[in-house]
């Protein structure tokens, strides 16, 4: 027997899997994948399952009604056996972009943590160690916030651009999905990349993140005159140039100072901003202003590089046995679905409309604590210890977030 809240969640999740079995997205070669499920009531992960086909999988979902459904990015000879005996055949290339890895100013308004040891409560990103007692165990609440998801989308678009323009993947080989919670998944399925080992995947990660870029190898040269990359150079050269342009365009004196530039250089940049920006039409700003030498440019370029790199969760891409959420299944923390976003529509994609599936009915709940948020066209909250009647999707989001309880 579960609580009324978990009974309600299970009832609704069951209804979804009963009526949407044809929507469940089968991965390619489902019989070679390992499946994993998080069980709603038992709160445990059931792994190492295999299915002959998608029909067997959907009837399993209808029967068991898990809170989360995963499959392996890897292909195995025998997915049900223990890890070492599965017979790894290869894995898709996957990227995870999660707001947890992107510093956003709004995290302080919607995320909080409680130390499991001393009970101190803090706002924003969870610290490594508790400032009160030094322990490392926290109860966290993060939120699928609109601004955070917008930043995650920006990172996703940068990643897609790198994969297509620099790696040469075809747009139709890349699948982008909203994860159902705080980010996006990008997945590349192509025969040649399947057998890449961890080291090879690490190389791809380093490229995407822009790790170890040595400017000397990317066109910045201090000969008689200082030269550097230009905007339409290919690969990282062009990215560095475009990032540097963007940084110069937007940077405030404070940001330039934070980049490690001395006051005099900051003043020079602000004074010659127009000349510096105009210079991109020709050979770039390198060497156009006397005061700015190769060391200053290195500092500026470093920030340009950061602007252009894609903030991915690097661990996910290098893990060749990773379990990833299955398309069109529910996310146990939100009751939204993981949904594929056609590459052309990503700019207009709205996770708070497009990933909502419980569009009927209402439920009465007691909300303990929730920030202001939007779902569909309506804005809800903030709530604090109050009884409210809400549309099913909204009530479910709060229940899954453990921010509310059902009244029956
Ligand atoms: Zn503590
Ligand atoms: Zn946010």
Query: Biggest sheet: strands, sense, closure?
Result: 4 strands, antiparallel
Major sheet: order of its strands? 2-1-3-14
**How large is the share of residues in beta strands?**
15-25%
Rg over alpha carbons: 24 Å
Cofactors and ligands: zinc ion
As a percent range, the share of helical residues equals 25-40%
Q: How many separate helices?
A: 14
> Which stretches of 5+ consecutive residues score pLDDT under 50?
none
CATH class of the largest domain: Alpha Beta
CATH superfamily of the largest domain: DNA primase, PRIM domain
What is CATH's topology name of the largest domain? DNA primase, PRIM domain
Specify the structural class.
alpha+beta
The counted number of beta strands is 20
What's the end-to-end separation, in Å?
15 Å
Number of domains: 4
**Mean pLDDT level:** 94
The coarse silhouette is: globular
Assigned CATH architecture of the largest domain: Alpha-Beta Complex
List the helices and strands and how they pair.
Blueprint: H1 4-19, E1 35-38, E2 45-49, H2 54-64, E3 68-72, E4 74-76, E5 88-91, E6 93-98, H3 107-110, E7 112-115, E8 121-123, E9 138-141, H4 146-166, E10 174-178, E11 183-188, H5 191-194, H6 198-209, E12 221-222, E13 226-227, H7 235-250, H8 253-258, H9 263-271, H10 273-278, H11 294-308, H12 314-318, E14 323-325, E15 339-341, H13 351-354, E16 362-370, E17 373-375, E18 378-380, E19 383-391, H14 392-400, E20 404-406
Helix pairs in contact: 1-2, 7-11
The protein binds zinc ion (2 copies).
One zinc ion (ZN) binds at residues 115, 117-118, 120, 130, 132-133, 135.
